């Protein structure tokens, strides 16, 4: 056979629409069809011989090509192609079974206990600070039994405290903790839990599902869907934004349950000011500056304390205990600390006495449904959630105010707040362990990561649902794939709640899994050796970030201890040292400006780079000065300079980052780690550095930012200035 003729006919076979349709009917989507064809073509073209029946078909096709009466047609290759495809994709043999397992079109049927009763659904809709959750909790407290499901440990702990203070015995259940109201560890009739931990088998009189709008969350939305469809309670009280009313009503229509909507209005007025703060000199007691990166938190807190003011600091990766202590410090009328610097972590879970919310920026890093990182303006929902923290009902401030740090941002913030909140259109779903086990039965040689991929590719959902992002799950599955574990244990390890941007925590999970696979218990002594406990108070920001990672490791141990009690036996001891570590971190946060100064004076490579928990606004493929370490964090200098690169303006309001605050930062950090690194690499000389500093100072005096021409130099012509620029 002529190889050229065979290749031409194989390519003709691939392009035939009828063949692609037949492939789809046999489970080969476009991606699998392409991969199967490449393998099939390679098999024919590179094999020294093929089976006799395939050879006859190829011969008939090649000899009959171009003749009026064809001996053969390229479509005759399909049975051989399909046979080859099934060899490289074994799931094709059991495609019907796999499709049935991954059919997600009727989630209500997954919860027969809930479908066996007629539930009453009450939607408490309203903005932040409207009393919607309060009314739901009152019904929870008056019931014979109840369950509260919240998005945060802090919220679950707050309801746990309120219930027991009201003489309603209530247990606390989170992923890392079980606290019983009764001394004999007998289960109380009321439970406050994080939403992932709610039981769909236990009957209750009343259930409260808080922050229902998070049902659309790309990563955690499945937990709200599971609670809404599966809780066995006579009354389900749902609290959240009015944007979720239509979706909840539609979901309940599929279960045959009606929704009663109760609308609430904000209890105190909220005013958007007509002027921006513009300078930290204009701060007043009760102000809260909201930032969206740790770098800004550190920079602004130092500038505030340089003005002789005390400030509290709250951000996402702080332990819950430290957040509560910082909130208590800020709320205490007798404490000199009257200013709060925080990320959007204050949006829920903390009761704060804030007079005025000040957005340092209205640009925030986000992760979309595909798991891709994006930079964009905050949404109306996010802006309302954060701004609504000002003027909390019952606090010393009878009304709330909101503004921005920079004048340009204020116009856009007003536009954002005027826009209607986009309705919640779909609820999240996630494959269950049972579904993955059934997949593994049919595909015993597939890795867990591949099983998840195949499940998602075959899954069918209707318009009310979407499959949640599983990148974190797959990341952990790939990381521990080489460790011999049974499927159920492997699945549990892959659902562990950790931040994959923290190498120390990821490495610890890997060590946990390896020792677990050897059936060796992970003892308290082993954990102390691994974390080098006891630990001293941090001397710089890098050490503070490491302590936060160690706290996450202790959380991880406690989370696993409730799933594998015999292999993680020392939960009580670990909880004790975690509380001590929380106290150490609190000391570090209280002295955060000293840590920042220590980090800058050391100017060691990597010291400034570890401070960002979010991917920074200066991320760029074109500007080598905005280099990053393996944590994805950038130095403050790179953050400040790179925002001037026009190609990286993914949102129109990034100009705000070339503000006076940034100029002060440049001035103070001019000789930081970026400068040292450039000097070491020969990209910058001492003379060039002195010239840059001189130009920065000149431009600062002229009210301009960035590297410009030396306009105030009488000896410098326009042409010279242009060349220097």
Describe this structure in words.
The chain folds into four domains: 3-92, Rna Polymerase Sigma Factor, Chain: A (Orthogonal Bundle), CATH 1.10.1740; 107-263, P-loop containing nucleotide triphosphate hydrolases (Rossmann fold), CATH 3.40.50; 270-418, P-loop containing nucleotide triphosphate hydrolases (Rossmann fold, 3-Layer(aba) Sandwich), CATH 3.40.50; 469-600, Methane Monooxygenase Hydroxylase, Chain G, domain 1 (Up-down Bundle). Helix 3 packs across helix 5. Strand 11, helix 13 and strand 12 (339-342) form a beta-alpha-beta unit. 45% of the residues lie in helices and 11% in strands. Mean pLDDT is 83; it is low at 66-70, 604-672 and 704-725. The strands form four sheets. An eight-stranded mixed β-sheet has the order 4-3-5-2-6-7-1-8, with helices on both faces. It has a six-stranded parallel β-sheet with strand order 9-16-13-10-12-11. A two-stranded antiparallel sheet has the order 14-15. The protein has 29 helices and 18 strands. By secondary structure, it is an alpha/beta fold.
Q: What is the average per-residue confidence, as pLDDT, rounded to a whole number?
A: 83
Structural class: alpha/beta
Q: What fraction, in percent, of the residue positions are helical?
A: 40-55%
Shape: globular
How many extended strands? 18
* Distance from first to last alpha carbon: 67 Å
Please, how many helices?
A: 29
Please identify, by name, the CATH architecture of the largest domain: 3-Layer(aba) Sandwich
Domains (count): 4
Q: How would you characterize the largest beta sheet?
A: 8 strands, mixed
Domain Helicase C-terminal: 272-437
Cofactor: Mg(2+); Mn(2+)
Keywords: ATP-binding, Helicase, Hydrolase, Mitochondrion, Nucleotide-binding, Transit peptide
Organism: Eurystomus gularis
């Amino acid at each position: 056979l002529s190889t050229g003729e065979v290749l031409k006919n194989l390519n003709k076979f691939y392009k035939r629409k009828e063949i692609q349709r037949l492939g789809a009917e046999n489970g080969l989507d476009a991606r699998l069809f392409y991969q199967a064809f490449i393998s099939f073509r390679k098999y024919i073209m590179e094999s020294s011989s093929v089976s006799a029946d395939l050879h006859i078909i190829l011969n008939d096709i090649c000899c009959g090509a171009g003749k009026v009466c064809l001996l053969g047609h390229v479509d005759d290759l399909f049975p051989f192609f399909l046979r080859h495809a099934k060899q490289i994709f074994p799931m094709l043999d059991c495609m019907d079974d796999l499709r049935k397992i991954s059919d997600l079109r009727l989630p209500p049927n997954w919860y027969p206990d809930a479908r066996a009763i007629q539930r009453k659904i009450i939607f408490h809709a309203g903005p932040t600070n409207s009393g919607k959750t309060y009314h739901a909790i009152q019904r929870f407290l008056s019931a014979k039994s109840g369950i509260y499901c919240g998005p945060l440990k802090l919220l679950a702990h707050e309801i746990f405290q309120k219930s027991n203070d009201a003489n309603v015995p209530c247990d606390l259940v989170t992923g890392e903790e079980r606290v019983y109201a009764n001394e004999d560890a007998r289960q109380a009739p009321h439970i406050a839990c994080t939403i992932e931990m709610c039981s769909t088998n236990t009957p209750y009189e009343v259930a409260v599902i808080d922050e229902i709008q998070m049902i659309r969350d790309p990563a955690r939305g499945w937990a709200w869907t599971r609670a809404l469809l599966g809780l066995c309670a006579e009354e389900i009280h749902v609290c959240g934004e009015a944007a979720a009313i239509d979706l909840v009503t539609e979901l309940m229509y599929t279960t045959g349950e009606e929704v009663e909507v109760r609308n609430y209005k904000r209890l105190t007025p909220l005013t958007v000011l007509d002027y921006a703060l513009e300078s930290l000199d204009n701060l007043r007691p009760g102000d809260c500056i909201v930032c969206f990166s740790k770098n800004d938190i550190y920079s602004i807190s130092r500038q505030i304390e340089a003005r002789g003011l005390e400030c509290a600091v709250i951000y996402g990766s702080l332990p819950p205990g430290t957040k509560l202590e910082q909130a208590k410090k800020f709320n205490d009328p007798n404490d000199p600390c009257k200013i709060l610097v925080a990320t959007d972590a204050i949006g829920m879970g903390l009761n704060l006495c804030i007079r005025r919310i000040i957005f340092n920026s209205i640009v925030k890093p986000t992760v979309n449904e595909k798991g891709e990182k994006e930079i964009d303006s905050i949404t109306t929902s996010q802006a309302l959630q954060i701004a609504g923290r000002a003027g909390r009902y019952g606090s010393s401030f009878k009304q709330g105010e909101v503004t921005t740090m920079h004048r340009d941002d204020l116009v856009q913030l007003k536009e954002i707040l005027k826009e209607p909140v986009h309705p919640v259109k779909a609820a999240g779903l996630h494959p269950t362990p049972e579904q993955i086990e059934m997949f593994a039965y049919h595909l015993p040689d597939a890795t867990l990561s591949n099983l998840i991929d195949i499940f998602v590719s075959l899954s069918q959902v209707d318009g009310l649902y979407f499959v949640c992002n599983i990148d974190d799950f797959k990341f952990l599955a790939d990381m521990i794939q080489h460790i011999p574990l049974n499927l159920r244990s492997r699945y549990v390890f892959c659902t562990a709640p950790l931040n994959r941007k923290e190498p120390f925590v990821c490495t610890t999970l890997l060590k946990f899994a390896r020792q677990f696979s050897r059936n060796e218990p992970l003892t308290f002594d082993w954990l102390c050796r691994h974390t080098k406990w006891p630990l001293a108070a941090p001397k710089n920001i890098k050490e503070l970030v490491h302590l936060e990672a160690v706290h996450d490791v202790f959380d991880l141990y406690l989370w696993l201890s409730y799933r594998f009690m015999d292999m993680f036996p020392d939960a009580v001891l670990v909880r004790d040292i975690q509380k001590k570590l929380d106290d150490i971190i609190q000391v570090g946060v209280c002295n955060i400006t000293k840590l920042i100064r220590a980090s800058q004076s050391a100017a060691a490579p990597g010291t400034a780079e570890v401070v960002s928990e979010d991917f920074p606004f200066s991320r760029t493929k074109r500007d080598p000065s905005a280099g990053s370490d393996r944590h994805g964090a950038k130095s403050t200098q790179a953050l400040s300079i790179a925002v001037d690169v026009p190609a990286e303006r993914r949102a129109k309001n990034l100009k705000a980052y070339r503000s006076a605050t940034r100029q002060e930062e440049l001035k103070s950090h001019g000789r930081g780690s970026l400068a040292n690194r450039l000097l070491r690499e020969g990209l910058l000389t001492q003379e060039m550095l002195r010239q840059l500093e001189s130009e920065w100072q000149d431009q600062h005096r002229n009210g301009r930012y960035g590297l410009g021409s030396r306009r105030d130099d009488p000896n410098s012509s326009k042409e010279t200035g242009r060349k220097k620029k």
